[in-house]
Design brief:
alpha/beta, Urease, subunit C, domain 1, TIM Barrel, Diaminopimelate Epimerase, Chain A, domain 1, 6-stranded mixed β-sheet, 18 helices, 29% helix
Length: 557
């Protein structure tokens, strides 16, 4: 078995990793390793050496990867030798899309049939009516697609069953909320409220608010209970500790319902274990109707970022989802003739978003779901700059369900990276547009050369990455789009690093790369599929430092 070591194979490393390798030739390459993993099945996510038996770590970086004999020879008197016992050792997982720290402002009422299809409107109203008999403060609950798609005047319907109690119903996936008159009154939301940048208030034929709030107007939760550093820090700390037990070493936080400033303060208080990259929703950063303000606010907050935290973004939500039928589609939704969904931004606003992204160093993230919205975005990008310029910007497409085979070549040419969420594969087809030819794809993206990363889209708490991995390799309803185990694990490691522009630093077990490592409880490349969600990490390392160790690794081994 060949060995890759910092002082050799320089030509196989790229960019920063090359530089790091060359700088370390005379020092770290000759230093005594801090840690050796031996007797392992090492999945490197490095095409130059996909599998190995052993790994050496020194100075927070991978020193060497190779056979047991080759790597053991590097050890010294102070080297900690960890016998992996044949277990799978992988790069640390990268959670590339998660929402944390945002919960309903009061304990939610229990609603039937969640998540799909959720309560019928009548069931939801009955639950609220019963609760209103004893509640005088906020009644909150999650609802599903049945309530979200119902076209009644929800403000009037809720007023009829809870005339004196504020009521707030939220789509469990976000993007839509419902509030009654007492709720509007308590929050000071008047009839003449202006639609915010990237969102809108529902109105009846007379122009009166009908109780619905969509996208950036859907700010009910922080209006009722503003976020605090203390609560957010507790949520972040709980999430990072759970993620450490799954072998997650980097987290891409989709920062909704709160500003970048308070999020960074909370992360500082939580003392990050992993490396975090924060993508703050642009529309949340400013109450003004000016797009540049969002970048300015994020830039200012970024200067206060604590150790292990990077700030990118902003993230703009270009359309909704098929669940509430607001993602912008080429064909009309079932049961709603002429309704194709809608864009959250005008053509002029989208143009400005893209122009600002071209002029700034930070990465742009875009929520794009509908195929018509995808068409609109691609056309606008092609108008504004040549493909090589866009490739240098590495724009993130969060979800990308509307990326069909007819636009693969354009997407690949522009260098877009898709962050897909296999947990969405558990959504029943009836919650999507069943006649819609474009839906989630995975293998086809890989085959088309489109960079792919995987995230859970979880929220408000962390989600099991191995459940996500299982869905990616099974792909319910369309097995031909399933990834292989190796492809899925690569998307969860090297793919996540590429998605944030860190592929020269982490995401692989290769010399010069960050020593982000997970020793898994079972071999996710070979075990029966149904067992994947029960996988945990026995030992998780970030930059050479242990952030979680199972009991078996707290001994002298």
């Amino acid at each position: 078995m060949e060995m890759t070591v910092i002082r050799g194979r320089i030509g196989r490393l790229a960019g920063c990793a090359e530089i790091a390798a060359m700088l370390l030739v005379g020092s770290a390459a000759l230093a005594e390793p801090q840690i050796l993993f031996v007797n392992a099945k090492v999945f490197t996510a490095d095409p130059a050496l996909p599998y190995a038996q052993a790994v050496a770590i020194e100075g927070g970086r991978i020193l060497a990867v190779g056979s047991n004999e080759q790597v053991r020879a590097l050890g010294g008197a102070k080297t900690r030798v960890i016998d992996a016992g044949g277990r799978l050792v992988t790069p640390g997982l990268i959670e590339a899309h998660v929402h944390l720290g945002t919960e309903l402002p009061t304990p939610p009422l229990a609603m039937p049939n969640l998540p799909f299809p959720g309560p019928t409107p009548e069931q939801a109203l009955a639950v609220v009516e019963q609760a209103a008999k004893t509640h005088k403060d906020w009644i909150t609950a999650y609802v599903g697609s049945l309530a979200a798609r119902d076209r009644r005047n929800w403000r009037k319907a809720l007023d009829a069953v809870a005339p004196e109690t504020p009521v707030f119903l939220k789509g469990f996936w976000g993007h839509t909320s419902i509030i009654n008159s007492e709720g509007l009154r308590r929050l000071g939301i008047a009839e003449d409220i202006t639609d915010p940048l990237g969102g809108w208030w529902g109105r009846d034929e007379s122009g009166r608010l009908d109780g619905r709030a969509y996208e950036a107007a859907e700010t009910i939760t922080p209006r009722i209970r503003p976020p605090t550093v203390e609560r957010l820090a507790a949520a972040f700390d709980e999430a990072q500790k759970r993620y450490a037990r799954w072998g997650v070493t980097s987290i891409h936080l989709m920062n909704n319902d709160k500003t970048a400033e308070i999020t960074l303060a909370a992360l500082a208080a939580a003392k990050p274990l992993q490396r975090w990259t924060v993508y703050s929703w642009g529309a949340w950063q400013t109450t003004a109707q000016r797009l540049p303000d969002a970048w300015a606010v994020i830039d200012a907050a970024a200067r206060q970022a604590p150790a292990k935290v990077r700030v990118e973004g902003p993230k703009w939500i270009l359309d909704g989802t098929p669940i509430e039928q607001n993602s912008f589609q080429r064909t009309a939704y079932d049961g709603r003739p002429g309704w194709h969904g809608r864009s959250n931004f005008s053509d002029e606003q989208l143009r400005e978003i893209l122009q600002l992204a071209l002029a700034r160093p930070t990465q742009l993230a875009l929520h794009v779901v509908g195929d018509a919205e995808t068409d609109r975005l691609l056309s606008m990008m092609e108008q504004l700059a040549p493909a090589p310029v866009w490739r240098s910007k590495r724009v993130r497409i969060e979800h990308g369900d509307g990326i069909g085979r007819d636009v693969f070549e354009r997407v690949a040419g522009l260098g877009l990276v898709v962050i897909q969420n296999p947990t969405h594969l558990a959504i029943p087809p009836t919650a999507r547009k069943k006649e819609h030819e474009h839906s989630i794809v995975l293998k086809s993206l890989e085959d088309a050369g489109i960079p792919l990363a995987l995230g859970s889209d979880g929220g408000p708490r962390e989600q099991n990455p191995f459940l996500n991995l299982m869905l990616a390799v099974v792909f319910p309803n369309e097995p031909a789009e399933a990834l292989t185990r190796e492809q899925a694990l690569t998307a969860y490691t090297a793919g996540g690093a590429y998605a944030e522009g860190e592929e020269r630093r982490k995401g692989r077990l290769a010399p010069g790369f960050a020593a982000d490592v997970a020793v898994l409880s079972q071999d996710v490349l070979t075990i029966p599929t149904a067992q994947l969600p029960s996988t945990t990490s026995l030992l998780t390392i970030v930059d050479g430092e242990v952030i979680f160790a199972d009991a078996m690794f707290t001994s002298s081994n």
